Amino acid sequence: MATLRNVISDVRGMHKILSTDSLITDRVIASEIRSTSLLLIKRETNLRKLWATDTIFTTIPCIEMVEVPLSECCAYQGDDTIARTKYKIPKIAEGNYQYVIQGVYSINALGGKGVNLKGISVNRYMNLLNLAQKKNESYYWISDDYIYCTNSDVTLLRLVALFESDVSTEILFPECSCGDNPDLTEYCKNPLDREFYLPGYLRKQVLELTSKTLRQTYFSIQTDISSEGIDGQAPNSTPTN
Fold it and tell me: How many domains does the chain contain in total?
């Protein structure tokens, strides 16, 4: 799979004017690539495509959980507790129907077995609590950028989702740090040199739309400035008293 730096290079290569303009930095191009890719990928997931692939999803392997009162996130009266991620999670992309999440898994639920958690709304979970026969299942929901899990014994989660921006190294590799150890090479990579999650059949469209947006945006700005002059006057106009 190509890196983000490879995709940036391909965008610059489509038009010579993009490869020589200093105003359009790699960071600017990368931002536009991400925005365009996210738009197209969300279009595909809305059509129920790509859900079973590994070409769009990022895995956060280990998310620490803490026990909190159920009343923290809803109008519940009682002493029941649930689990919540200790820190807020990166923003997850949303489609027409739901968050673009491939899976949320407990790593060490009670009994030592991992569990594939089922997504649910907090209101629906409240309704389940009122049922005479409660199902012995674990659910999750997202609120205020936290993941809540109905099983308070869960202390670690694994999350596989489409995120709207790069996930930081500290979140991807929570127990690792950069150093001289060659085994840490992947952890210490510049984000531009990591694999960029983009399905092959969308690559050409992403390149074309990114290039078009950059040319329309940046070269239109330059044309306006040169035609209007620095202070808004035409370049060859003479001020009048």
Answer: 2
